[in-house]
Design goal:
With about 300 residues, the chain is mainly β. It folds into two domains: about 5-135, Beta Barrel (OB fold (Dihydrolipoamide Acetyltransferase, E2P)), CATH 2.40.50.140; about 150-300, OB fold (Dihydrolipoamide Acetyltransferase, E2P), CATH 2.40.50.140. Helix content is about 10%, strand content about 35%. The chain is built from six helices and 15 strands. It has helices at about 5-10, 65-70, 150, 210-215, 265-275, 280-285, and strands at about 20-30, 35, 45-55, 55-65, 80-85, 85-90, 105-115, 125, 160-170, 175, 185-195, 200-205, 220-235, 240-250, 285. Strands 1, 2, 3, 4, 5, 6, 7 and 8 form an eight-stranded mixed sheet that branches. It has a five-stranded mixed beta barrel with strand order 9-11-12-14-13. A hairpin with a 2-residue loop joins β3 and β4 (about 55-65). The radius of gyration is 21 Å and the shape is globular. InterPro entries: NA-bd_OB-fold, RADX. Pfam families: RADX.
């Protein structure tokens, strides 16, 4: 069928009601958002953002309501979609934006693609990777992996991806979303090493929409975290990484087929791990317990 592209959509969307099908690749994926309220009677008040791209650039795509439980877990980073009967709307101005792996890619920020169960009922097809043709011109997923030795030189709030061997994982903890609120964030601390520094990555991992992964993080697993944010804790200048709205977390058993397996820094880490003694690394691992962070000063005078 006749296809359109994201660049053409941005130029013509105000003058059209029906749009030609789109062929896009998912580059980023947000956590699933629940927006239900007691006074609003909605069956499935869910929403998820994706950043999708074709040869012309990148645009946000929103999955609404009952389409979320049906499609969210099938739509992975790297998945190619054929979309028909979708809607186009002006972008929501307050949403978060991931940092693209390709800084040269054009971003169409004024509008977003809306996938709904009705008005109109969107038709979604997932194209298997082996059927994707080079002539379609779809961009590859690119990452911004850093090593531990590079971390201390990065600015506050910088976005990056990391891979490391887990040496410590703390218990799950809760923090109130707002003061006096009954809603909580669930998170845990982890340490991971990559052989480029004596210091580990200190990772604050909030529960994303991957509970199966979050609950199974354990020492001696290869941990990949994408779209992490650099946080500098003053006055100690301690640097740690925290998850963002678009972070994805992967451990052993989830790596196969992920686009990052082709990344050079991921391959370098695997080579380093193959040179290590598993018995020696196990001796350095810790699990559970209370992890006070940032650490208090070692004397009352400094405090």
């Amino acid at each position: 069928s006749k296809l359109t592209n994201l660049g053409h959509l941005e130029m013509t969307w105000r003058s059209r009601v029906h749009f030609h099908p789109l062929l896009v690749r998912i580059l980023h994926k947000s956590r699933l958002k629940y927006y239900g309220k007691p006074e609003k009677k909605m069956d499935m008040p869910y929403q998820a953002y994706f950043e999708v791209a074709d040869g012309s650039g990148m645009m946000s795509m929103v999955l609404w309501n009952s389409l979320c439980p049906e499609w969210y877990h099938s739509m992975k980073v790297g998945t190619v979609l054929l979309l028909a009967k979708y809607a186009i709307k002006s972008s929501y101005p307050f949403k978060t934006h991931p940092t693209p792996g390709d800084s040269q890619m054009k971003r169409f920020a004024a509008i977003e693609i809306c996938l709904n169960v009705r008005d109109p009922p969107t038709e979604i097809s997932i194209i298997p990777e082996e059927m994707v043709k080079p002539e379609w011109g779809l961009p590859e997923v690119k990452y911004r992996f850093i090593t531990r030795s590079e971390l201390d030189d990065l600015p506050h709030n910088h976005s990056c991806d990391v891979i490391g061997l887990v040496t410590f994982v703390g218990r799950a903890e809760r923090a109130r979303k707002r003061e006096h609120s009954e809603d909580f964030w669930l998170y845990r601390w982890a340490h991971a090493i990559d052989g480029t520094s004596d210091q580990p990555f200190i990772l604050e991992l909030f529960a994303t929409s991957q509970p199966d992964v979050f609950e199974r993080i354990h020492p001696m697993t290869y941990l990949v975290c994408t779209q992490m944010r650099v946080m500098t804790e003053n006055p100690s200048r301690t640097v740690y990484l925290t998850t963002s709205n678009e972070s994805q977390i992967f451990i052993k058993g989830w790596h196969k087929g992920q686009p990052y397996t082709k990344d050079a820094k991921v391959k370098n880490f695997i080579q380093w791990m193959e040179s290590q003694s598993e018995v020696d690394q196990i001796k350095k691992t810790v699990i559970g317990g209370y992890y006070p962070f940032p650490r208090p000063p070692d004397s009352f005078l400094k405090y």
